[in-house]
Amino acid sequence: MRPLCSAAVRRGDGDARVTDVDVVVVGAGLSGLTAARDLDAAGLSVLVTEARDRVGGRTLNATVAGVNVDLGGTFIGPGQDRVGALAAELGCATHPTRTAGDNLAFWNGRVRRYSGTIPRVSPVTLADVERVRLQLERIMRRVPLGRPWDAPDAAELDAQTVASWLEKARATAGARSLVGVITKTAWGCEPNEISLLHFTHYLHACGGLNPMVDTEGGAQQDHFPEGAQQLSVRLADKLGEKVLLGAPTTRIEWSEDGATVTAGDTIINCRNVIVSVPPALRGRITFAPLLPMLHDVLPQRWPQGVISNVYVAYETPFWRAAGLSGQVVSDAAPIYGTFDTGPSDDGPGVLLGFVGGSYARDFATLPPAERKLRALSAFATFFGAAALNPIDYIEQQWGQEPWSGGGPTSAVPPGAWTSYGRALAAPVGPIHWAGSETADKWPGYLDGAVSAGERAAREIRTRVQGVSA
Ligand SMILES: Cc1cc2nc3c(=O)[nH]c(=O)nc-3n(C[C@H](O)[C@H](O)[C@H](O)COP(=O)(O)OP(=O)(O)OC[C@H]3O[C@@H](n4cnc5c(N)ncnc54)[C@H](O)[C@@H]3O)c2cc1C
């Protein structure tokens, strides 16, 4: 089919600008921009409407003491082929995350050194964590990728939280705390907030617990020295005027033949729409007519977690001289996990810390000076008094970002997948769904954002150009 017309925005009679394109993509995060890139390359006219005045969504570059850092999505690892291929194509280099030296665990009020991923807090806890991991991975193999509701015991898995399952499995307090650190940092929630079906589906989509939590050989293996937002910035640069910033989509009127999208003061007539915002934020868009019931209610049942991250910079990475990697796992608020993302032994030294779950909700309400004090105190508990003298400090509260609604990803509660999951990625007439959370592999990650964008673009090409999906 011929493209409807060029994507160039033109002025209408009144204040509103009216334009026609083949496809409107709502959201200029990595997923939406990947979809737009593919459709543009396939000869379809596209317009990306973005609420913020920047691209990249949950990726955001910043500097601390002059060093590039990521305030959002940061790491990539083996098996994340789609984002790896995109990074290579766009010339976005990656760098191994620093692992040299011992890790630290702050556990039951004591700091201990260890090597590897799982902190050796006690032999009993270690053995129990392994037992729990094996049980969870046995369950995950029953949960089909992209169709968790088809698991033979889906209803049972979706009727319990991770916390209630741990209790039933008689997990030790140590194993429960460790799973708690994982839910706080991976989903921004507590174990009693997400369903076991969601947890095990996610594990399956990542290839298991170790690929998800490991640094070497796992999802934290590499990062982008120029920042992960560069992926979106470079995609947007190629799309040029086809990306409209500061234009929140508020209304989508649709029929089987097409849609009219209202984005800021621009009204766009199009043949198809891809909505790439986090599932919870779909509910802020008025769809006329109303979406089918499952699609309409889903945003209420797909909440984002809450996470904040902090970066502290020092003259030098003094912990390296003490034989430490800069990685910490902690069972106590405010900082549950840290990484060393500094450039070299000469300095500046840079530590990233994650504040997730229920404490992140409290943390966000504290005055900025108090937040900084608490974060520095935690770093000092881990690395000693030298951590109280930073040369720079920055932080990001994802729970207070209106166009993210939290982060890092959706913390899906019991009952949601089995009741509404079928509507997560299923198109409705001309409306298709992208966004990392709709991916079958690595959902909630940069890789999932890319593969979901690619899948949504394929769906549209099948519909419009008859290309096989
Ligand atoms: C603190 C943190 C750490 C993370 N760490 C990692 C990591 O190490 N590795 C990893 O792989 N992933 C990580 N992630 C997750 C990763 O960043 C996301 O999965 C990914 O960036 C999501 O991309 P997306 O395009 O699907 O969604 P988003 O990035 O959320 O993009 C959606 C876009 O839609 C826009 N939007 C929303 N509503 C509207 C509207 N009504 N109209 C128009 N535009 C709208 C938003 O402004 C945004 O630009 C992390 C995330 C956070 C927050």
UniProtKB/TrEMBL annotation:
Cofactor requirement: FAD
Organism: Antrihabitans stalactiti
Keywords, sorted A to Z: Oxidoreductase
Gene3D superfamilies, per database record: 3.90.660.10, FAD/NAD(P)-binding domain (3.50.50.60), Guanine Nucleotide Dissociation Inhibitor, domain 1 (1.10.405.10)
Domain Amine oxidase, first and last residues per copy: 30-460
GO MF, one annotated term: oxidoreductase activity
Family: Belongs to the flavin monoamine oxidase family.
Residue sites binding FAD per the record: 31, 50-51, 437
Matching InterPro entries: Amino_oxidase, FAD/NAD-bd_sf, Flavin_amine_oxidase, Flavin_MAO
The protein's name: Flavin monoamine oxidase family protein
Residues reported in the UniProt entry to bind substrate: 354
Pfam families: Amino_oxidase
